[in-house]
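Go through the following before class.
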Amino acid sequence: MIYKTRAMAKKGFLQYLFRYFSLYPGIFFSIFSIMNRFKNLLKTKNLPYLNRFPTLNIKQQSSFLQVYSKLKPRGRIALFSGCSSQYLMPSITEALIYILNWLNYEVIVPKQHCCGAPLLSAGFEKEAKKLARKNLEIYKSFNIDGIITPCPTCAHFIRDVYKEITGEGLNVLKFADLFEENLKEFKGDDRSNVFFHISCHTSNYVNDSDKTLKLLKKFGINAEKKTGCCGFGGLFSFLFEKQSMDILRKKVLEYEKADMIISSCPNCIIQFKSAMKDKKILHYAEVIQKILFKGEKYGRAL
């Protein structure tokens, strides 16, 4: 009902901006990166969204299939990066690939497209369906055990919303379920103020935060679980910037004493980094990858 109403509503500049972002994310982020470099010369009061993002780390999108093989893999998993991880924080995608290979999975990385969530949120139902069918065609062409994505919004969208708008969804796996129950515990030094921020889509749709929290504990990380909206909300933070900032300020106060913030959502990380530049803010995949890669105690590895 909400999406149908948005499809009928009159659309403004930002809605159309999100439309082109979803259809052509590579071009969009390249232009955005150039603008961001010269934002001090621009009137940023008229372009407030330039201040929303941390320093952009644009990664050129691959135009071909990438396969990260194992000699005798226990299975094959395809990666759905999501736009934020693909273009703004490629270290999250790289961390997931590393961990999946460490778990002895072969990793398939097809050419990446937007999941379509921004399109549907902005009221472009027809375009969202078209993009959904494209992604369904790509991922269903592989013989895989399932799909992993670092973005809970993408996970909900390609698993649940695709089913609503096209009749079929994709098999999205839960990250923590890939680890064996008898996984050895990694020794870490206990930081007293580590918070695990659970995003809205994780809480309401993906529902894997408790398992991820237990997994982090096995890696020597005793984090306190925190919920509540960060204020990003995709299109919401651009259309209603004041309200978004009001919500963010409350979270900044809540996390004032944090030594580190771990999140389940790349978009929450973007939001927090825009306001807490002195804090260490990481996706849980980055945290686990650093511990595995360094082979060191938690405090030294990060």
